[in-house]
């Protein structure tokens, strides 16, 4: 059958009996229908204009046009339709023969397939039963495994093995809950599994709560043990320093036969540390944390743990007002130390239970609170020993916590801040002790019967002047004040070093030396001055005090060496920066007091100078009475003082006394009581001064030749005055060279006054009447008069 070509759709031309708008609308509608477009816009437009009949007319026109087109197509293909109908009729007989063949084939198939279908039905039934049995077996296996897991979970629960119980529950929930064939069993599991988890969480939380209560007691004991370890370590360091000081002292004394050995430190510290760290059990904590991790509650447990431990730390900060802090401070600091030892262990082994930042924040809070407590308690303390006890424990706490990596600078700053207050309290205590020691001293030489007394009072302060042990009983050159004050100062040094040590002070010796200087210059020197100026009543006491001051010079050297040794610096460095004797005022006052009392004694003998015959007819050969008494007194003084006073002190005192005697002799010539004197009297004074000079020279074996000459020089003023009066040419005094060499100690005003009193033998009363105007003037007298006139002119 031939096919014809489809002709192109052509929209019919509109009729000419409409207006232009209707034609246009009709063309657009026809084009849209031919192209299969949406006619909605045309319908809306028609109803909007209120003329639907126009749209109907256009559609009717389009229908008529298409019907005519269909008719044209049918007419064009009519022959083809006829031929197709004929072909279909020819196929009808073939279809009938095919139908009969199919019927015969179906009958044969039915006869053959009936037995086969019967067998197939039996097979299907058997297969269904097999499937049911296999399903039942699988279900039973699942139930058996489920029951085994449930039994295992119950067993772990009964034994308290919660982690394995939770693992069993997780296995049931993950592997069997959705596969359980029994809906009843599934509902039971869905109900019991959350209940079991809640039960485990409660049990673990209770165990954790019990651990929180127990760990507070453990923390206190742990802190005390750790601080005890720090104390033991400090003791070992102190023993090592003592050995070092002994070795340094031997080296300083040039003992070359020292034996050096390398000592191994015992591992006691590590053993104690291990015992301390293993002394508390974190198993309940880690178990609770692990269980909560398994339950998926890790973050909640971390928060719960941190908040509870923070509350515990806050309660540890409470200081009881019923108990003195001096009694409770060890428990207070040990509790905090133990708390952070536990937290350090948890941080290192807890697997993220607490973070480093959280521990640091807790430590910052603790340090702030401890600093506040220390500030408050230190401000209330008025006893240096109490402050030192608390400082020592705080420093041990610092050593302990530094070992665990916690910063302690703020605590050390608090201790440093109260360093001045502590030393002020310590100085106040020492001031009282020194005052009591001085008040109890009778200023008599100490009497030591046994060697241990010598060691305790002399050797322990290095006051000995010889390395040879003396015979006992031994009479010391000092009184009980010296060893008593030395013990007080040594205790001050040790307490000061103890307070300053273990605080990171780089210039420890300088700080200790500063306070030691204050103790010696302000406290000890001031106390000695008060005693010297107030209660010294006799030569014996004054002499003993002067002897004590000489011993104090050696003691002060020991004090600074002791401070250097305790501060851990070499002695050569300490000796390099040694300053002058800090008790200079007291020493000078003691020597001045002794000299003053001796001068008073000497003045009693010098009062006999009034008995001198100033217009003697002939000079005395053995000296005047007063000088003999003075020399006897001075010799007695030397024999007594040399047993107590050091040579240099004795020399200074004698020099001062001799200088006073010289001034008194010149003063006698200068005084109003002596109106005139002659050469014989001057010659008698010359003998007196020679006797005194001989006394000074006789001290050379005791002192030295140079010291004896210095003693002799104390009489220089009286010697030069007598030499001038006995000189044949006194006008040589006006010669600057001769005056500087021979009369440099003389004041020209005194020379004028005394020279005017000198009378010649011919100047006796009525002695010159018979020769007046007839005798020549004495050349010496003439020279002396010229000297007096010139000096008056100068004046």
TrEMBL record:
Residues 1-23 are annotated as: Disordered. Keywords: Cytoplasm, Exocytosis, Transport. PANTHER family: EXOCYST COMPLEX COMPONENT SEC15B (PTHR12702:SF1), SEC15 (PTHR12702). GO terms for biological process: acceptance of pollen; pollen germination; pollen tube growth; vesicle tethering involved in exocytosis. This is Exocyst complex component. It is found in: Cytoplasm, Cytosol. The lineage of its organism: Eukaryota, Viridiplantae, Streptophyta, Embryophyta, Tracheophyta. GO terms for cellular component: cytosol; exocyst. It comes from Abeliophyllum distichum.
């Amino acid at each position: 059958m031939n096919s014809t070509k489809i002709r192109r759709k052509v929209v019919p031309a509109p009729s000419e009996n409409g207006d232009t708008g209707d034609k246009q609308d009709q063309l657009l509608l026809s084009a849209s229908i031919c192209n299969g477009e949406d006619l909605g816009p045309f319908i809306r437009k028609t109803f909007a204009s209120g003329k639907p009949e126009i749209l109907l007319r256009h559609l009717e026109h389009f229908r008529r046009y298409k019907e005519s087109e269909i008719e044209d197509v049918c007419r064009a293909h009519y022959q083809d339709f006829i031929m197709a109908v004929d072909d279909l009729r020819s196929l009808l007989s073939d279809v009938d023969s095919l139908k009969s063949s199919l019927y015969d084939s179906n009958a044969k198939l039915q006869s053959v397939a009936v037995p086969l279908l019967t067998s197939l039905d039996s097979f299907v039934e058997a297969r269904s039963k097999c499937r049911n049995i296999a399903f039942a077996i699988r279900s039973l296996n699942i139930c058996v495994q489920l029951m085994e897991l449930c039994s295992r979970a119950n067993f772990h629960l009964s034994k308290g093995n919660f982690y394995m119980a939770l693992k069993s529950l997780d296995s049931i929930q993950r592997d069997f809950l959705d596969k359980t064939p029994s809906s009843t069993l599934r509902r039971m599991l869905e109900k019991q599994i959350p209940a079991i988890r809640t039960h485990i969480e409660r049990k673990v939380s209770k165990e954790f709560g019990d651990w929180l209560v127990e760990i507070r007691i453990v923390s206190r004991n742990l802190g005390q043990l750790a601080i005890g370890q720090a104390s033991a370590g400090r003791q070992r360091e102190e023993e090592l320093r003592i050995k070092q000081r002994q070795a340094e002292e031997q080296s300083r004394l040039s003992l070359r036969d020292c034996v050096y050995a390398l000592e191994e430190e015992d591992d006691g510290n590590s053993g104690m540390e291990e015992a301390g760290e293993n002394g508390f059990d974190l198993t309940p904590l880690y178990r609770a944390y692990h269980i909560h991790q398994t339950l998926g509650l890790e973050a909640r447990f971390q928060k719960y743990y941190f908040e509870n431990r923070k509350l515990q730390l806050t309660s540890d900060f409470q200081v009881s007002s019923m108990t003195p802090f001096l009694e409770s401070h060890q428990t207070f600091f040990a509790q905090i130390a133990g708390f952070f030892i536990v937290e350090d262990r948890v941080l290192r082994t807890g697997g993220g239970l607490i973070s480093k930042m959280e521990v640091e924040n807790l430590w910052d809070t603790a340090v702030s609170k401890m600093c506040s407590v220390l500030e408050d308690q230190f401000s209330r303390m008025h006893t240096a020993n109490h402050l030192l006890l608390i400082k020592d424990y705080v420093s041990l706490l610092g050593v302990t916590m530094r070992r665990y990596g916690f910063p302690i600078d703020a605590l050390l700053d608090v201790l440093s801040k109260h360093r001045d207050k502590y030393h002020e309290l310590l100085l106040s205590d020492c001031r009282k002790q020194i005052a009591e020691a001085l008040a109890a001293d009778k200023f008599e030489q100490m009497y030591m019967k046994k060697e241990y007394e010598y060691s305790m009072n002399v050797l322990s302060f290095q006051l000995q002047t010889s390395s040879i042990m003396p015979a006992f009983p031994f009479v010391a050159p000092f009184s009980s004040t010296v060893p008593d004050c030395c013990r007080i100062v040594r205790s001050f040094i040790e307490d000061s070093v103890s307070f300053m040590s273990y605080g990171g002070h780089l210039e420890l010796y300088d700080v200790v030396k500063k306070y030691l200087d204050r103790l010696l210059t302000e406290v000890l020197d001031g106390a000695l001055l008060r005693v010297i100026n107030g209660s010294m009543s006799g030569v014996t006491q004054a002499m003993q005090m002067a002897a004590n001051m000489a011993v104090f010079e050696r003691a002060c050297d020991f004090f600074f060496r002791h401070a250097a040794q305790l501060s851990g610096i070499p002695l050569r460095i300490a000796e390099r920066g040694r300053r002058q004797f800090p008790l200079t005022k007291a020493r000078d006052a003691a020597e001045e007091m002794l000299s003053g009392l001796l001068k008073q004694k000497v003045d009693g003998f010098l009062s006999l100078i009034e008995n001198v015959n100033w217009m003697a007819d002939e000079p005395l050969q053995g000296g005047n009475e007063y000088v003999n008494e003075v020399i006897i007194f001075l010799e007695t003084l030397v024999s007594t003082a040399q047993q107590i006073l050091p040579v240099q002190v004795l020399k200074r005192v004698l020099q001062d006394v001799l200088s006073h005697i010289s001034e008194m002799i010149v003063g006698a010539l200068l005084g109003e009581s002596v109106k005139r004197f002659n050469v014989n009297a001057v010659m008698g004074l010359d003998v007196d001064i020679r006797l005194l000079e001989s006394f000074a020279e006789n001290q050379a074996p005791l002192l030295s030749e140079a010291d004896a000459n210095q003693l002799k020089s104390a009489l220089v003023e009286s010697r030069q005055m007598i030499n001038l009066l006995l000189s044949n040419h006194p006008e040589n005094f006006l010669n600057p060279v001769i005056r500087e060499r021979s009369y440099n100690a003389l004041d020209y005003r005194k020379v004028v006054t005394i020279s005017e009193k000198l009378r010649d033998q011919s100047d006796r009363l009525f002695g010159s009447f018979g020769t007046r105007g007839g005798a020549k003037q004495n050349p010496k007298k003439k020279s002396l008069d010229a000297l007096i006139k010139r000096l008056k002119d100068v004046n």
